[in-house]
Design a protein that fits this description.
The structure holds 3 protein chains of 3 kinds. Chain B is an alpha/beta fold. Chain B contains 13 helices and 10 strands. By secondary structure, chain C is mainly alpha-helical. Chain C has a single domain, classed as MetI-like (MetI-like fold, Orthogonal Bundle), CATH 1.10.3720. Chain C is 78% helix and 0% strand. In chain C, helix 5 runs antiparallel to helix 8. The chains are: A alpha+beta, B alpha/beta, C mainly alpha. Chains in contact: A-B, A-C, B-C.
């Protein structure tokens, strides 16, 4: 359903708060029908960007085009706001019934009773809260409240919906159900969406494209896959879950592979770079396997390092194992492996990872 | 919707109140120049005398009397500022000064009652039956007996200060001399509560006697006379003063009709009159 | 103790016999304080909302002034109004001193900061993003303000109660600007003070009980409205 025509595009967007720049965005555009995930740590400017895109906060400068039309004057802004919707982290429901809440946007637009009734009922149904329609909004669970808030946003048939961490304060099962429903409804209605979240997995579930933010700037934007697998810098790499990031220098080049000298060892990676070039090697902990030091098992891994276990941190199904191979390395290991390998802090072990598991970031491009 | 209903309800209630206020006396008030502001002492109001005679005056003259009952001092300050049209007060020395300075005219004697020195029945200072108020005060000071003063620049307070002066005692700051800052009635209440001595006009005392437990310990001295005059505020000083109304009121107060009422007012309730009519008499002849 | 019983008895008697004077006084109290409360609501909610929603230089000072005004002693309000309304004062030409109108003005002056302060606080305590959410729903400024006021309606009803309670029980200003004129500007509180001065403690108490009863009825009604609004 995605088309190439941008529904919303901004250029030179600059926002200050208390005299301090909090958002600086040279260019950004959203295509009709797509879902864009904004990820980044707290304070990176995700909410600010959302509010600026929704024209809800004052911008120092910046040109916003909606369907190619400038949104600038008070009138244009008002007209624009009537065609979009925003959902916040807190449900921000009005102190009335669920029905009246979902109807509020339509009330504001002075639609006639009958039409309001039909549209509200449709959304209540869609979000699975029709049985709550006469319930007071104050009496809802967190999940129900956020569903109401989403239904209220969708009731006005927005062309774009901006979602500011809508699931952050929900417990995992509730979040799971709502994520699924939201994904379905976004696709059903073809609504364009921009969602801010600090959870990359959440963003991955919903969005075709992702933008990573830091300190008020978008550091990388692109298809979700690219962001996850090919981060362009160290910050993005660590944010998308590459826990080991090593600095080294290219010591040799093969066909599509390079060797990187880490100073305390050498590793092989898939990629291209000039010899002598400084690079960063990023490795996901999921891609590191551990085996007993004595074992000479068959492994296709090109990188094999003797290591000492520094620390073992339980993470539920997995354990995070911090290793010292001369350089620090993090691995995720199942509980089964922990006991099979008899891993303890201070124990010796062998760490292995494939050359393809190493993502190389070149310093200068 | 429920929330809207509640809100409408509250707004409606307020609107209803406003509407009713539309018919309040604020609008129904008599025409402006018909208003007469009478500044008087609390004692005339507290005894109920004014509530009795003013409706008669209003009915007779069609003036609307706004009785502002304050201390004599405040009443005279209102006259001096032209904020009142007529004064009915009992602070002769200050009254004379007001008239001399030209703020008041036509000061006329209306009535008197008298002050009495009150104290607990046990009379620890032993002033019971003393004829001279001055001597009684001296004795109170000498024995350091607790004394309550209104200290509010009222006529009563002025009288009390005059007696202290005559007795050659400066009670200010003495431990046994306590200020209430209240009106006569309330001061009586405090004195009764604390078993203290105090000076009161007879009228207020009589009207409150049943709840007190304070006895008259000294009375009858000429210095204890409490004399009420009516004064018209000088329209030459203050053009906004309603001079005709003030004159009408003053005339009314010294009229035979009112004087007759004063003579019997309170007899049915307290067994003796609260005031003695004095219109046309001379101050010097009073109490004799 | 006897006196209190006697006072209750008197109050009951005055009420059941519809004593015309007491009825008049009660009615006047209600009208004056009700009107003053209405004006203060109009002023207080408008100003409170504007101050809560806008940023301007000196805003802190304004908020401090409002909060100080909440504690404005009624006698001070009365004194100020009196001085302004004196015949020879700046507003003397109005000739409304010692009238119920003057009492309404003084009581409005007393209630306005209370209502303003509570309105300000109740609008401010709404979640910060709520304003953005309302705008995002497509509301214009007027719609937004109206929705915010509706959201704050429970504390705003408290403002009504506090304002009304403050003025109906107030005596200092009423006696000063109204003059406690019989059948004209005498209200429950000033009558109570006067009867106390006269030593008619039973009647004073009776008037006090009627005042309490009145305050109770009004508050009960408003509380009923307020609590009915609360989500079950």
């Amino acid at each position: 359903m995605t088309t190439d025509a941008p529904i919303l595009s901004v250029s030179d967007l600059f926002v200050k708060r208390g005299g301090v720049p909090v958002l600086d965005l040279p260019a950004f555009s959203i295509r009709k029908g797509e879902t864009v995930g904004l990820i980044g740590p707290n304070g990176a400017g995700k909410s600010t960007l959302l509010l600026a895109l929704a024209c809800l906060i004052k911008r120092e400068r910046g040109r916003i085009l909606f369907h190619g039309q400038v949104v600038s004057t008070r009138r244009e802004t008002f007209a624009y706001r009537r065609r979009i919707a925003v959902v916040f982290q807190e449900p921000l429901l009005f102190d009335t019934t669920v029905y009246a809440n979902v109807a509020s946007g339509l009330d504001i637009r002075h639609l006639d009773r009958q039409e309001i009734g039909e549209r509200v009922t449709r959304r209540l149904d869609q979000f699975g809260i029709d049985h709550l329609r006469n319930r007071s909004a104050r009496k809802l669970s967190g999940g129900e409240a956020q569903r109401t808030s989403l239904a209220r946003a969708f009731a006005i048939d927005p062309e774009i919906v901006f979602l500011d961490e809508p699931f952050s304060s929900l417990d995992p099962p509730t979040r799971e159900g709502l994520l699924e429903d939201l994904h379905r409804i976004l696709k059903e209605t073809g609504t364009t969406a921009v969602m801010a979240t600090h959870d990359r997995l959440e963003a991955l579930r919903l969005s075709e494209r992702m933008a990573v933010m830091r300190d008020g700037e978008v550091v990388q934007i692109g298809p979700a896959d690219t962001i996850i697998h090919h981060p362009t810098d160290e910050f993005v790499a660590s944010f998308v879950g590459m826990e080991t990031i090593l600095t080294g220098r290219v010591s040799g080049c093969g066909v599509g592979t390079i060797r990187v000298d880490l100073g305390v060892g050498e590793l092989e990676a898939v990629g291209e770079a000039r010899p002598g070039e400084a690079v960063r090697c990023c490795i996901r902990p999921e891609n590191v396997t551990l085996q007993l030091p004595a074992a000479r098992e068959e492994t296709s891994a090109r990188n094999l390092f003797p290591a000492r276990v520094e620390k073992i941190q339980p993470l539920g199904l997995f354990h995070r194992v911090l290793l010292d191979c001369g350089f620090p390395l993090t691995a995720y290991v199942t509980s089964q492996s922990i006991s099979d390998l008899n891993l303890r802090e201070g124990a010796g072990v062998q760490a292995a990872f494939k050359a393809t598991a190493v993502h190389v970031i070149r310093h200068e491009k | 919707m429920k929330m809207r209903k509640g809100l409408t309800w509250a707004v409606g209630l307020m609107a209803a109140l406003i509407l009713m206020a539309g018919f309040s006396p604020a609008q129904a008030a008599p025409v402006k120049q018909k208003n007469l502001i009478l500044a008087t002492t609390t004692s005339t109001q507290d005894t109920g005398l004014l509530d009795y005679i003013i409706p008669i005056f209003e009915k007779k003259t069609k003036y609307f009397v706004k009785t502002i009952a304050v201390g004599s001092g405040a009443a005279m300050a209102m006259g001096q500022k032209g904020e009142a049209d007529a004064l009915l007060v009992h602070s002769p020395a200050a009254e004379k000064k007001l008239v001399e300075e030209g703020y008041g005219v036509n000061r006329r004697l209306v009535m008197h009652n008298d002050f009495v020195i009150l104290g607990p029945a046990s009379d620890p200072a032993g002033i019971k039956g003393m004829k001279s108020a001055t001597e009684a005060f001296k004795k109170l000071a000498a024995t350091g007996s607790l004394f309550m003063t209104r200290a509010d620049k009222s006529g009563t307070h002025a009288k009390e200060m005059a007696i202290w002066k005559a007795a050659g005692v400066n009670p200010e700051g003495q431990k046994w001399y306590q200020q209430t800052g209240l009106g006569m009635g309330q001061t009586l209440g405090v004195a009764a509560e604390k078993k203290a001595y105090t000076l009161s006009d007879r009228g207020t005392y009589l009207s409150m006697k049943k709840n007190l437990g304070l006895d008259i310990l000294s009375e009858g001295d000429a210095v204890l006379l409490n004399i009420y005059h009516v004064i018209e505020v000088n329209p030459a000083k203050w053009p906004k003063v309603n001079a005709p109304a003030a004159k009408a009121f003053a005339d009314f107060m010294v009229s035979k009709q009112v004087q007759k009422i004063i003579k019997t007012f309170g007899v049915d309730k307290y067994g003796s009159p609260l005031f003695f009519p004095d219109a046309g008499k001379k101050v010097e002849d009073l109490g004799k | 103790m006897d006196m209190i019983l006697e006072g209750l008895k008197q109050a009951f008697y005055l009420l059941v016999t519809f004593d015309p004077e007491v009825m008049g006084i009660t009615w006047l109290s209600l009208k004056i304080s009700g009107t003053a409360t209405f004006f203060s609501l109009f002023f207080g909610i408008s100003v409170g909302t504007v101050v809560a929603l806008t940023e301007f230089p000196g805003r802190r000072l304004v908020v401090s002034l409002i909060n100080t005004g909440m504690g404005l002693p009624p006698v001070v309000a009365g004194l100020i109004v009196t001085i302004f309304l004196w015949r020879n004062g700046p507003l003397g030409f109005l000739e409304i001193l010692y009238t119920p109108t003057a009492m309404i003005i003084a009581q409005s002056l007393i209630a306005a900061p209370i209502v303003t302060g509570i309105s300000l606080a109740s609008i401010q305590q709404l979640p910060r993003n709520l304003r953005l959410q309302i705008l995002a729903l497509g509301a214009n400024r007027l719609q937004m303000v109206w929705i915010l006021i509706k959201e704050a309606r429970l504390p705003l009803l408290a403002a009504v109660m506090a304002g009304f309670g403050g003025v109906i029980s107030e005596v200092g200003a009423s006696i000063m600007v109204g003059g406690n004129i019989k059948g004209y500007s005498r209200v429950l509180t000033t009558a109570t003070v006067m009867e106390t001065g006269k030593g008619n403690f039973e009647i004073a108490l009776a008037l006090g009980f009627i005042l309490l009863l009145l305050a109770f009825i009004i508050n009960a009604v408003l509380t009923q409205v307020q609590q009915r609004q609360r989500p079950r």
